[in-house]
Amino acid sequence: VGKLNINDASKQDFLLLPGIGEKTAQRIVKYREDAAGFKAVVQIKQIKGLGDKVFNNIKEYLTITDKSDLKVLIDINTATIPSLKLLPGITPKEANAVIEYRKRNKAFKKVDELQLAGIKREKFEEIKGLVTVLEPEPVKKKP
Questions:
Q1: Residue 132: in which H helix or E strand, if any?
Q2: What's phi and psi for 32, nearest 5 deg?
Q3: Radius of gyration of the chain (CA)
Q4: Can you tell me the distance from the alpha carbon of 74 to that of 39, in angstroms, rounded to the nearest whole number?
Q5: 13, 36, 57, 140: most buried, per Cβ within 10 A?
Q6: pLDDT of residue 136
């Protein structure tokens, strides 16, 4: 949610974008330095390893005029223990409790259920804006 200013963003910021890995993030920063900044968002397509598919997935998050305010929401129905531990104040034990709750109940239906999984109210208030519950992708049946 939000925008990432590609003229200010760090390598770490680019890693928040879907489909952008370490090497591509490094290439974006190097290209920007060599070109003295991006004049248009579409220039990012010049980066080796950043094809049309990735560009189409990330272009709505990119800007060259607005300030960066990109926040990546963690889907608690697909999050791994390492990604849950990135949330402020979440311990390995709490991350594990979230996964266990998800397994027992087949999935989270809403973010508030984190409290049922053992996340205390104060901590929940701190992280609720950083997590989401996405609808599971329908499983395609083979014809």
A1: strand 131-132
A2: -60, -45
A3: 18
A4: 31
A5: 13
A6: 57
Residue at token pair 């049309």: 52
- pLDDT tens digits, residue range 27-86? 999 999 999 999 999 999 999 988 899 899 889 999 999 888 887 778 899 888 888 887
- What's the confidence (pLDDT) of residue 44? 95
From residue 68, alpha-carbon distances to 3, 4, 32, 33, 105 in Å are: 5, 4, 16, 18, 37
CA distance 84 to 75: 9
Tokens of 67: 């300030």
List pLDDT tens digits, range 59-75: 999 999 988 888 777 88
Rounded CA separation 129/124 (Å)? 9
- Tokens 């997590």 -> residue: 131
pTM of the model: 0.58
**Which residues are within 8 A (CB) of 80 and not within 5 positions of it... i.e. 6 or more apart?**
none
Cα dist from 127 to 16, 36, 57, 130, 131, whole Å? 17, 37, 25, 5, 7
